[in-house]
Each structure stands twice: as structure tokens, then as C-alpha cells.
Amino acid sequence: MKKILSFAVIGLIVASCSIDNGSVTIQLPSDFTESTLIVSHVTIENMFTAQRQEDLIVIYDTLEVKNGTASMKLDPTGAARYDIMPPAASMADPEFYATPGDNLQVNITSFNPLDYQVKGTPLMEDITTLSSITAPIQQEYVSLVSNNDNVTEAQVTDIMNRYDEAIKKFVSDHPDSHAIPFAITNLSGDDFKQIYDNMT
């Protein structure tokens, strides 16, 4: 696994070669009223070769929404990170990683607070499991800094420590997970090195 960390580090350990481009079905929240949905993506190759932010080639697709569902084909040129744009500004967008030939199902329960699941590949299912553990801690941080003018360093440190511990527990509980390289990008120092050194 270490030999491919440069790609895995952004959560893209997938292996699929197919003539079929693959597809994504997006189930939107019950309160979503727009007739279209915008999804952007950047290829992994472009992410690695871009020297500056302006070198990133972001491709936008406008999808038709029917009965609360949108569907799209994947970029046939290679693996990519996809971002679903919410109807209003939010702290985070639903995102997923896919490679040509994948078939994914994205189920968005809510845009704010963000709550969604992705199924269809071991990578995305593992990331969904990880997100279900870390999302409540992230939401706690957002609530703290958004509604409190007197946030203390100790409060922030406590949340960050609990976030790191949640990631380390996930790694311990799922030692062969495809999401481990994705997860440890949130760690630093000895925590990162220890998990990296022990990856299968």
C-alpha cells in the first residue's frame, strides 16, 4: 500500500478498468426544491500536476433533477474527486472519489447540517463509515465557533484531540480499510508516521 500512497493519500485506492464510464445516482433531501444540481470534479492527475490553484481544471456538470434524484456519468479520462454543490453556502459539500467503471449511490439526507452516505466501492463505503464517526465532532466544532464569541483555546484543543482519537480508533478497528490513507491526512507528526509505518 505504501508504494501507492501518493494516490491513496487523497482517498483514491480503487482498481477498475472498464469500457463503461460508470455512473452515479444522487438521492437528494426531501426539502430540495431545485430543478438542477451542479456537480464539479477535478481529475486526480490534474490535482497532482497542478503547481498553483489556478492550474486546477475544474469541470462542472449541470444535472437534471427528477423526483428528487439526479444521475450522471463519470469522467472517462480517469479517477477524480467530485463535489456536489449545495443549494446554499455551507461549511462542507458532499464529495466522493471515483474512477471510470465505478457505480455509486449517493444518498444526501441533509445539506445543512451535512449528512450523506456513499455506496458502491470499498473506498467510499469505508470513507462513509469514517465520516459517520467524525462528523458529529466536526459539527460540534462548527457550532462552537459559530455561536460563541468567547471560544477558548482549551475548548478547541479538546475537540481537535477527540477528532484525532476518533480517527486513530477507526484505524485500529479497521486495519485493512481502504480509507486509512484518506483518514491520516487529518493527522500529523508521530500519529501520522506511526499509522503510515503500520499500514498493510
Output the helix-strand order. Answer: HEEHEEEEEEHHHH
Helix/strand structural class: alpha+beta
- Provide mean pLDDT, rounded: 86
For this entry, what is the oligomeric state of its chains? single chain
Low-confidence stretches: 3-18
Residues in helices, as a percent range: 25-40%
Per DSSP, what share of the residues sits in E-state strands of 2 or more residues? 15-25%
Major sheet details: 4 strands, mixed
Radius of gyration, in Å, reads: 18 Å
* Secondary structure: number of strands: 8
End-to-end CA span? 6 Å
Strand order within the widest beta sheet: 4-1-7-8
Query: What does the overall shape look like?
Result: globular
- Please give the count of helices: 6
What does this structure look like?
The protein has 200 residues and is of the alpha+beta class. It is built from 6 helices and 8 strands; from the N terminus they run H-E-E-H-E-E-E-E-E-E-H-H-H-H. Strands 4-1-7-8 form a 4-stranded mixed sheet. A 4-stranded antiparallel sheet has the order 3-2-5-6. A hairpin with a 2-residue loop joins strand 7 (103-111) and strand 8 (114-119). Helix 3 (122-147) runs antiparallel to helix 4. The longest helix is centred in the last third of the chain and has 26 residues, at 122-147. The radius of gyration is 18 Å and the shape is globular. The chain starts with a helix and ends with a helix.
